[in-house]
Specification:
This protein has 156 residues and is an alpha/beta fold. The protein is built from three helices and five strands. It has a domain at 21-118.
């Protein structure tokens, strides 16, 4: 699924999503947007609750883009970031305007590329993420080969 880059991604009105709660969820440093909550106009999602959901993404936070939310009723509680644009009880069914509306593919790609080209933080974040993955995946093998208990990596 490559929505929103390709806008033609229909939702299924036969699939109901109701009473879904995310509580105490934290994600820091993702390269992807926080999330997409897309429901169907004839069968909207209801009862979503985001409570203390923190999705910190350097790229998307800097660009000011949050959740893509369509035809979804719900509420945010606590220190949720970014706050999804849920419809409120009593609101007419409508597509909540999201950051993806009105952006053409070229503009979105240009904004993302501009950020990556200017960001030392992203380079550091990627290096640290790769280092952490390698250390975790190959810790035992590195310890066995070196006879050490702490992994030694060329980019540490």
């Amino acid at each position: 699924m490559i929505y929103p880059l390709i806008k033609e991604c229909p939702t299924d009105p036969l699939v109901s999503m109701t009473n879904i709660t995310l509580r105490n969820v934290t994600s820091i440093g993702s390269l992807l947007p926080p999330g997409i909550i897309r429901c169907n106009e004839t069968n909207p999602c209801t009862g979503f609750v985001f409570e203390d959901v923190n999705m910190r993404t350097p790229l998307w936070d800097m660009l000011g883009y949050g959740f893509i939310t369509e035809f979804a009723y719900g509420e945010s509680r606590g220190s949720t970031h970014p706050v999804p644009a849920f419809l409120k009880k009593g609101d007419p069914v409508s597509a909540t305007r999201s950051w993806a509306d009105g952006l053409d593919d070229y503009e979105m790609v240009r904004n993302i590329a501009k950020y990556f080209l200017q960001s030392e933080f992203v380079k550091e974040m990627l290096r640290d993420t790769v280092k952490q993955i390698v250390e975790e995946q190959y810790k035992d093998m590195i310890n066995e080969m070196t006879g050490k208990t702490t992994p030694i990596l060329p980019f540490a």
